[in-house]
Amino acid sequence: MGSSVVVVNGRLCKNPNDVTINDFLYKRFNVPGDTNNAQGANATLVDINQFPGVNTQGVAMVWVDFAPYGLNTPHLHPRGSEIFAVVEGTMYAGFVTSSYKLYDTILKKGDVIVFPQSLIHFQLNLGKTDALAYASFGSQNPGRVNVADSVFATTPHILDNVLTKGFQVDEMVIEQLRSQFSAENISVNTGRSILKLLSQT
Amino acid sequence: MGSSVVVVNGRLCKNPNDVTINDFLYKRFNVPGDTNNAQGANATLVDINQFPGVNTQGVAMVWVDFAPYGLNTPHLHPRGSEIFAVVEGTMYAGFVTSSYKLYDTILKKGDVIVFPQSLIHFQLNLGKTDALAYASFGSQNPGRVNVADSVFATTPHILDNVLTKGFQVDEMVIEQLRSQFSAENISVNTGRSILKLLSQT
Amino acid sequence: MGSSVVVVNGRLCKNPNDVTINDFLYKRFNVPGDTNNAQGANATLVDINQFPGVNTQGVAMVWVDFAPYGLNTPHLHPRGSEIFAVVEGTMYAGFVTSSYKLYDTILKKGDVIVFPQSLIHFQLNLGKTDALAYASFGSQNPGRVNVADSVFATTPHILDNVLTKGFQVDEMVIEQLRSQFSAENISVNTGRSILKLLSQT
Amino acid sequence: MGSSVVVVNGRLCKNPNDVTINDFLYKRFNVPGDTNNAQGANATLVDINQFPGVNTQGVAMVWVDFAPYGLNTPHLHPRGSEIFAVVEGTMYAGFVTSSYKLYDTILKKGDVIVFPQSLIHFQLNLGKTDALAYASFGSQNPGRVNVADSVFATTPHILDNVLTKGFQVDEMVIEQLRSQFSAENISVNTGRSILKLLSQT
Amino acid sequence: MGSSVVVVNGRLCKNPNDVTINDFLYKRFNVPGDTNNAQGANATLVDINQFPGVNTQGVAMVWVDFAPYGLNTPHLHPRGSEIFAVVEGTMYAGFVTSSYKLYDTILKKGDVIVFPQSLIHFQLNLGKTDALAYASFGSQNPGRVNVADSVFATTPHILDNVLTKGFQVDEMVIEQLRSQFSAENISVNTGRSILKLLSQT
Amino acid sequence: MGSSVVVVNGRLCKNPNDVTINDFLYKRFNVPGDTNNAQGANATLVDINQFPGVNTQGVAMVWVDFAPYGLNTPHLHPRGSEIFAVVEGTMYAGFVTSSYKLYDTILKKGDVIVFPQSLIHFQLNLGKTDALAYASFGSQNPGRVNVADSVFATTPHILDNVLTKGFQVDEMVIEQLRSQFSAENISVNTGRSILKLLSQT
Q: What sequence ranges are listed for the domain Cupin type-1 (chains A, B, C, D, E, F) (predicted)?
């Protein structure tokens, strides 16, 4: 087939003869993420976008760095449940069911929590030192959707009427909320930083 | 086995000998939902909770009633993609990708749109008369999570620090937002009304 | 990658940068199908063949137009269960289990019925006016197989011996049945019309 | 838990401590089926109904006995594709796509054919001696639906109007076809015999 | 699209217009495999590698030839459970659970056994004549991993320390074991022969 | 429903009203495993057996403790792929494909490797201090099968003929290998310790 290209799940597949051990390795799973942002946290997904070796394997990992009092902003993963293990620090964490019941708790080093697929969840570092967590997904492509960004930082903006009626506040409040989430701003860092890097290559 | 009970997917399964055509029927798919609420819309899911006959079938429907200018508040379905067809009226609709790009449009009668699984989406009736839509899910249990309720109307409340840091506003704004979503209030009507009825039986 | 082409599920995938809202829209879900055929009904699937936007979404819709006393001929969907909602009219409908038990009923406006995957089912308009139904599938590619066409209208014909022995009638009856289902004829309209259009493009 | 009962996929699961090798064995896969029926063939499914050991394994087998010139009547399997291998004899076999194209061929000993999920297919023994085939399914519960039985041998009967309009013949022909498929009659043997036995236990 | 190439699951898909009945046929399912090897058995998988027609069908078959006292060496199938039916002969067969419990038995002609996905299993011909079995998988690509080959016949060798510590024996024993499984040698025949042929084409 | 019991995937499901945050928590993910065994390593799965909260979530974690030069013995996971991240130490690791090709490498702190489902793999601590790794599975019930235990430590023993022929050595070598893997012995510690504890409760 010479120059032909094989694609599985929309991703290129190497010719088996060209595969090396390097295709199964990812080498930077302890480089601290930049927490110098408004929320003071940085989640780095190692999924099919960073690590093509997980294609068809149905599993991915993430590590989350927290500055003191840093927040991994309320978000959800559209395509996978998560197990989250605290490696360093003490955190307030929780998730919200589709009946709007909040399950929240304080996690210490060695504690593990499950966040079911697509439910909104968060973690807040309660300590005055950095914290660290590892987490896993039962999907090679779990995705991440930050709630605040999805509503107030979209390109283009969602129509005012949708937000004023949806959140039952006037346009000034909506504008105030939007102003916090411009492209140069904040929570977008959490989970977006790698996408930025990728789009520059 | 006499009185034994068979459960599939956590739901009771009738003895095949006791099954009748009624187990495959749902009879109220044209009863208008109550749109007399703050957002002016009402989505009525016909899924495994209302219609046990869809268990293991992997499909569900919903109809959405809109008062004039009514909003089906920004929400997502954790376990299924949606096809949404406008039966009456003209609507502004959209969804937000995990790159925070908004895809929005104006839908007229006969228009169909796809909302991918777990992405936040909405519809706003642009007309001064009632509107109606039918939609379908590739899951018998797609679920529904309203964004505003998930953040501001949980029981119990999410810790203030999570919301002030997550939305980058002060506690007064958070309190203002929360006050709109008390249990007696609003958008909870959208998708919650049936759950209330069920819990009373 | 320039001119490379990405395929998922055997279908072309657009470059994400080229995707627009139009890729998620289908615009003709209220154009009546042509019921001027022998059975007097026309089912129009909006699945991956007409609407590439449903690829990987696992959901599809169909609308069915019925002339007075029109029949949506006995058929099955090989790759998905169906929820069927009557929008206008009164119909006799049923499906047959793999134990050859018939579950049948009369459906009125607002009634919903489930047809399990791959079981033979039908609907007959009992009224002297047009009828209309919407239905949904838990698959982006449910397919449709008409029973009569599959047996008597194949290209080429199934060997006589299979049909005479299978239906326990002589060749004259088989020939009579076949003569009703030539390529210019009838029930093939139900579900075939769009395929014809597509193959001309 | 004493007397509690665990069910998976609607089937009883033994306590692991009570499991023996016998739970993984089926002992009669060479007992010829009774081909003394109108079609002269008998298919014996070894699936979850006869062999509980396949529960959750996603695989099943069948053997088909053919009398001379016997027919495995046109049928389909709603929940699994089939690989069919001729062990003894020569057969005419085929299946019909959802575009009503017939793919047919003559199979000899050692030939294997695939029948895709839910497409109508058949095999006819072309020889004057018995024939035998083994086949496999990628499902523990593939099911079997005979076309003629599903239309003409249901309990109760499908309404005449559906069949006269669906097959475009008058009621006399429908009645003639039905008369061949009474409960005491024929093709029902193919695939139904075991169900009868089971219901007597 | 002219010369474009469509790939599903990493395999080429023919243009539907070019598909013939031959694409659904495999013609050599009774050619005895070469059992002239150290173990005296030969398993011939008819899966997606030999028979592209099973792509997306989720099912495959295998036949296993046994010389007198021949062994189908301990192995596992990473991606599918197996049903195994004895066609000729008497065999000792078994599999080992993840609690290291052995379920073993003697199989006679007509006996069927299930081997769950990825558990190590084997069959040993107990007779002084050839034996034959057919088996099925609920996957089009079940794969096969021989235990001895996976440990002692890899290219390159696994580091000595892993094997001496893993099997708790000294290097001489490991070397003795490895010497039996050079590329020119034995059990590799079981399941590898076809791969060799394919790589030469 | 009073005392009724709901089971999903063969596991008890709590009544939603009785669910608390504790059902989503696992509290001992930093208790070092006992590496005082022949291989000098201990893998502790946190899957559905230890942590019922992962039922239906499709994800699990494991941590692996290594004594100096400790080995996580060659093993496989029948129902899930693995991502393995080194937290402390330097290791030699590898896996073997179904073509018996070894992919091996040296992993340092921060390195991540993928082990595909059901392929045999191992890690060996190359350092004179303890090492630690976290790993994740795309399954709530990945299982673990040690190769040496599965062949030489089964209850009861696999027939000698199978092992002498399968490994091409005489009975003395087999007996030597078996003697290392009695119930009081070694590699069984790796992954078996928790099962022992559970069976005592």
A: 27-175
**The pLDDT value given to residue A10:** 62
Q: Residue B44 has what DSSP assignment?
A: E
Given a contact cutoff of 8 angstroms between Cβ atoms, the answer to whether C24 and C53 are in contact is yes
Distance CA E12, CA E14 (A): 6
Q: Position of tokens 């995937």? A: F9
Q: Kindly give, in sequence order, each residue whose CB lies less than 8 Å from that of residue A194, ignoring residues fewer than 6 positions away.
A: A44, A45, A49, A50
- Interatomic CA distance for residues A167 and C135, integer angstroms: 33
Strand ranges (E), chain B: 6-8, 11-13, 25-26, 41-46, 60-66, 71-76, 82-88, 91-96, 102-107, 112-115, 121-125, 131-137, 145-146
Most confident segment among A184-193, B39-48, D82-91? D82-91
D vs F: CB pairs below 8 A: 9
Which structure tokens are listed for B114? 């796809």
| Chain E residue whose CA is closest to F148 | E167
Q: What are phi and psi of F68, to 5 degrees?
A: -55, 130
B82 is in an annotated binding site: yes
**Cβ–Cβ < 8 Å for B90, B108:** yes
Q: What are phi and psi of B192, to 5 degrees?
A: -100, -20
Spell out the residues 6+ positions from residue B10 whose beta carbon is closer than 8 angstroms to its own: F6, F7, F8, F13
Cis peptide before E142 (omega within 30 of 0): no
Summarised one tens digit per residue, pLDDT across range C124-165 is: 999 999 999 999 999 999 999 999 999 999 999 999 999 999
Which residues of A make CB contacts under 8 Å with E? 4, 6-8, 13
Question: What's the ipTM?
Answer: 0.86
pLDDT at residue number D28: 84
User: E160 CB contacts (<8 Å, ≥6 apart)?
Assistant: E171, E174
* DSSP H or E run through D152: helix D147-152
Residue A115 — left, alpha, or beta (φ > 0 → left; ψ -120 to 50 → alpha)?
beta
Largest separation between any pair of C-alpha atoms in chain B: 62
- Which chains have at least 3 CB atom pairs separated by less than 8 Å from chain F? A, B, D, E
Q: Which residues pair with D191 in a beta bridge?
A: none
Whether F39 and E166 lie within 8 Å, measured CB to CB: yes
Q: Return the SS3 of E136.
A: strand
- Cβ C51 vs Cβ C80: under 8 Å: no
Contact F57 A138 (CB under 8 A): yes
The confidence band for D10, taking pLDDT boundaries of 50, 70 and 90, is: low
The helix-helix angle for E171-179 and E160-167 (nearest 10°) equals 100
Which residue do the tokens 């020889």 mark? D127
Helix (H) or strand (E) holding A177: helix A171-179
- First vs last C-alpha separation in chain B: 29
Q: Which residues of E are annotated as a binding site for Mn(2+)?
A: 75, 77, 82, 121
Among C3, C4, C7, C199, pick the best mutation site for testing chain E contact (most E Cβ within 10 A): C7
Q: Is the pLDDT of residue F191 over 70?
A: no
Q: Quick one: which H or E segment has residue D171? A: helix D171-179
Per-chain mean pLDDT for chain B: 85
CA angle E75, E78, E84 (to 5 degrees): 60
Say yes or no to pLDDT of F5 above 60. Answer: no
Q: Cα(F34)–Cα(C2) distance, rounded to whole angstroms? A: 55
Which residues fall within 8 angstroms of residue F121, CB to CB, at 6 or more apart? Answer: F74, F75, F76, F82, F93, F94, F95, F96, F115
